[in-house]
Amino acid sequence: MNIQKIVENKIRKVSKKKLLLHKPFFNNEEIKLLNKSINSSYVSTTGILTKRFEANLKKKISCKYVIATNSGTSALHAALLAFNFKKNDEILVPSLTFVASVNSICYIGCIPHFVDTEKNYPLIDIEKLENYLKKNTKIVSGKCLNIKTGKFIRGIIVVHMFGHCVQMNKINQLSKKYNLNVIEDAAEALGSKINNQQVGTFGKIGILSFNGNKIITTGGGGAILTNDKKIYKKCLKLINVGKSGKWKNEHDIIGYNYAMPSLNASIGISQLKKLNFLIKFKRKLFRKYEKVFQDLEFIKLLAEKKNYFSNYWLQTLLLGKENEHKRDHIIQYLKKKNIQVRPVWKLIHTLKPYKNFPKMDLKNSRKLEEKIINLPSGIDVN
Ligand SMILES: Cc1ncc(COP(=O)(O)O)c(C=O)c1O
């Protein structure tokens, strides 16, 4: 039997239905609160439901300050602005990520500097990065100078990919040594934890996304997470168009219209109540997929690492070496069979707008990209 048929049969053991990649889970709860928002007339950013969503999220993830935004991308943009990076500072970021992590660096006039993932695991290879920094940088006036480009490396965006947790203790150690500001892109990782602590709360600042395909959704939306009051205040002003003064009708900085509207927050309030259920569902779904694929040596399911708790946002197949070149065949075949799957994003450093930015050797990411197939992971897969 050919590989595409084998994969189809395995998925069909988990579900016989037409499957979407990530169907959101709504019921009457969302409609009730949406109605409440509409009836209150406060449907935009001044509605109380945005404040309530922030308070509920704050409690859920035990973070001191939470700001709801209109997307994960805007949360990232504001988060980066909070750090006073200078034009042309370099910020480390994986090439294997969604483009928003990289774009946010470009938006603020800084330079993305691409780093590699682990072999066969889509998270930053911290050891490789440490060796790279040792060889290619030196500390000048307390800052990390890239010897090759003559620019300072001032930050790092870590991405908790598909809900799997980056080893934040190691990242924080490394960032101390090289004086890097840590921004956690936890867009995909609400509910993922290290030692019972939500990822996104280990660095100075983190972000979440509530886009339609995430574990919970507000239609479009995101959040900034921080335990630092100064950063909180700065971000709050930035995302509220820089409003200031007694009547909030003045603007002492150039801000952005990035706050989450009440309509979206109303959906988020009900979605948050479903989070525990959804995490349980996804972890169970992982075990189901793992069980049906376990007899195949040439395909593995991406699993959380020991002592790290993943929300298993997107279930992920890793093709063995013999089948890497068959990825597109398998995806096309499954789509025809009403099973929506997808490849991972193209490596960002290979794309036209990003080709000339600095990078380390990205061998692991290049190999990994060809192996990944994301499987249907939403509530309809049962
Ligand atoms: C890793 C990562 N970063 C950032 C984002 C941006 O989030 P949004 O789509 O809400 O702007 C996403 C989501 O799509 C993502 O997957």
Features:
Aspartate Aminotransferase, domain 2; Aspartate Aminotransferase, domain 1; single chain; alpha+beta; nine-stranded mixed beta sheet; binds pyridoxal-5'-phosphate; 382 residues
What does this entry look like structurally?
- It is a single chain.
- The strands form five sheets. Strands 1, 2, 3, 6, 7, 8, 9, 12 and 13 form a nine-stranded mixed β-sheet that branches.
- The chain is built from twelve helices and 20 strands.
- The two termini are 25 Å apart.
- Helices cover 37% and strands 19% of the residues.
- Helix 1 (3-14) crosses helix 11 and helix 4 packs across helix 8 (229-239).
- The mean pLDDT is 97.
- It folds into two domains: 3-24 and 275-374, Aspartate Aminotransferase, domain 1, CATH 3.90.1150; 28-271, Type I PLP-dependent aspartate aminotransferase-like (Major domain) (Aspartate Aminotransferase, domain 2), CATH 3.40.640.10.
- With 382 residues, it is α+β, with helices and mostly antiparallel strands.
- It has helices at residues 3-14, 28-40, 48-61, 72-81, 99-107, 126-136, 168-178, 229-239, 262-273, 275-293, 327-336, 363-371; strands spanning 65-69, 90-94, 111-115, 117-118, 121-124, 137-140, 143-146, 152-159, 181-185, 193-194, 197-198, 205-209, 222-226, 243-244, 250-251, 299-301, 308-309, 316-319, 342-343, 372-374.
- The structure holds pyridoxal-5'-phosphate (PLP).
- Pyridoxal-5'-phosphate binds at residues 71-73, 97-98, 100-101, 159, 185, 187-188, 209, 211, 222.
